[in-house]
Each structure stands twice: as structure tokens, then as C-alpha cells.
Design brief:
Largest sheet: 6 strands, mixed
Strand content: 25-35%
Distance between the termini: 34 Å
Order of helices and strands: EEEEEEHEEHEEEHEE
Shape: globular
Structural class: mainly beta
Number of domains: 2
Number of strands: 13
Length: 271
């Protein structure tokens, strides 16, 4: 487990966007499907989400963290490698050796101490846990904000984009004002409380069509015109990183549930 490996995302391999993942919680299986695979490769594969006790373990460099992961086996590794190989410009380190891993249950990774409010800590002062996401467990976006972005794109003669470009976990509809979520601090959904901790800076990954894997110049070009901060001009923001409040983690929320804003405050951006 001394080998340190690096993570791979759509930033390096846009073809990963064409993989559809379906979880079956009852029998703890994960189905990966990619219709673009041709030739000798199967278009789908089923994976047991509980790895064997003998499975290899690695240390992974994930942004500023080093986390322990468990290898999910050779069959799914071959499937993932076949998907990555569809990209015309593959980084040299990705030409072979791509593996699918799961966060080790014995590993502890927490949200950023810089952006996690004290009210989100446990009674013992422990920050919320996070697995293999960029840094926070939930991403919240507003349909009104996407509508405003698309209005600007259309005004420039460009095509509107889908919300899937931003890959949020929660999408808020209704009659909210565009980017009003920048000012939310605590919200309630179905009786569960959530902390809105910081804006999400967008990279070229938001320019990748999640159905085709094709990379475009938008929406980053247009967002740079009105979603850049005065502090860090090269960063543009869409959607908000969210943490479930202590006592609300693990609770279920329904599609169509009302969102109530409990507390507001100034936006938080990266510095």
C-alpha cells in the first residue's frame, strides 16, 4: 500500500462522461454502462460494491488529501481502461493502468476546516466525513441560475446547456432569483438542515457534454463575463457546496420537497 497513485476525472478524459452508473442498494451492486464501447468490449459491467478482503489497497493523492482506497478488480479496470482509451489525447500516465477504486471504510477523510462552519461539527468537534468527491458531499444548484446563464448564451447566438454539465446532487426549482443561492447559509428540506459552505469554482469539466463527452468552449467563456470574483479573476462560480447538519446526515429528502431558507449571509468564494 506504499504506492501513491493519482485520481483521474473528466478533466483529463472527457469520455468518462459517457459512462452511466446505476446503483442497486438492495444487493449492493453497481452497474456501469457505456454505449460508445465497440468491438470486443462489453457495453456494461456489474460490480459488487463490497470488495473482497484480499483486494489490493492503494494510497491516492486527491487534491490536498491522501486517502486509502480499495481496488475493485481486473474486470472493471479493463472496462474503465476501454472507456478512457476512446479519448484522442490521453495523458501518458493514463495509457494503461487505469483502475476503479472505492474509498476504504477504514479511512477517515473530512471536509475542509477552512470552509466548514463550527455549527456543522459534531458535539465532539469532528468535521463531517467525505469520500472521493472533490471536497464536499453535496452540490446544490438553482434552475433559475441556469436559466439566466442560458439566456446570456442564447443572446450571444450560442446553444443553451443542460444542468448535467454542473453535475449537482440537488437542483432547486421554483421562483428563486438567479444566483440567490450564493447568499444562503442554512436551508431546510423535508425537515433536514443543510449548511451552504462555499461557492463551487468551475473548471473545463463544465464544458464537457455529459451525453457525448464532447468538449466545448462554453459555459466558461460566458460565465467569465459575470461570475468571476474580484479577488480571483480566473475563477468562475456556479452552484454551492453543501454539508448536511449534524443530526440530518443520512435522512431522506424527496424530489419536489420545498426548500426553506433559514439563514442568509455574504457569499463565500475561494481565496
Amino acid at each position: 500500500m506504499n504506492q501513491l497513485i493519482v485520481f483521474l476525472s473528466q478533466r483529463q478524459c472527457p469520455s468518462l462522461a459517457t459512462v452511466v452508473a446505476t446503483i442497486t442498494p438492495r444487493d449492493k451492486t453497481l452497474k456501469l454502462q457505456c454505449e460508445r464501447l465497440v468491438g470486443k468490449h462489453d457495453k456494461s459491467i456489474m460490480i459488487d460494491m463490497e470488495p473482497a478482503t484480499t483486494a489490493k489497497r492503494y494510497l491516492v493523492s486527491l487534491w490536498d488529501d491522501v486517502v486509502q482506497v480499495v481496488d475493485m478488480g481486473d474486470s472493471v479496470a479493463a472496462f474503465c481502461q476501454a472507456v478512457v482509451d476512446q479519448d484522442t489525447e490521453i495523458p501518458d500516465e493514463m495509457k494503461g493502468g487505469v483502475r476503479l477504486v472505492i474509498h476504504a471504510s477504514t479511512d477517515d477523510r473530512s471536509t475542509s476546516p477552512t470552509y466548514t462552519p463550527a455549527s456543522a461539527h459534531s458535539v465532539w468537534g469532528i468535521r463531517p466525513s467525505v469520500a472521493l468527491t472533490d471536497g464536499f458531499p453535496i452540490l446544490l444548484a438553482s434552475q433559475a441560475s441556469l436559466d439566466e446563464l442560458n439566456r446570456r448564451l442564447i443572446t450571444k447566438g450560442k446553444s443553451p446547456i443542460e444542468m448535467s454539465r454542473f453535475r449537482p446532487n440537488i437542483v432547486v426549482g421554483g421562483s428563486t432569483k438567479p444566483f440567490d443561492e450564493d447568499y444562503w447559509k442554512i436551508i431546510e428540506i423535508d425537515g433536514a438542515l443543510f449548511h451552504i459552505v462555499k461557492g463551487c469554482p468551475r473548471c473545463k469539466q463544465s464544458c464537457t457534454d455529459q451525453l457525448t463527452g464532447k468538449v466545448h468552449e462554453e459555459p466558461l467563456e460566458t460565465m467569465a463575463e459575470f461570475r468571476a470574483t474580484t479577488e480571483v479573476k480566473e475563477k468562475v462560480y456556479f452552484a454551492q457546496n453543501v454539508i448536511a447538519a449534524q443530526g440530518s446526515a443520512g435522512r431522506k429528502i424527496r424530489v419536489g420537497a420545498k426548500v426553506k431558507v433559514i439563514q442568509r449571509g455574504p457569499p463565500v468564494w475561494e481565496t
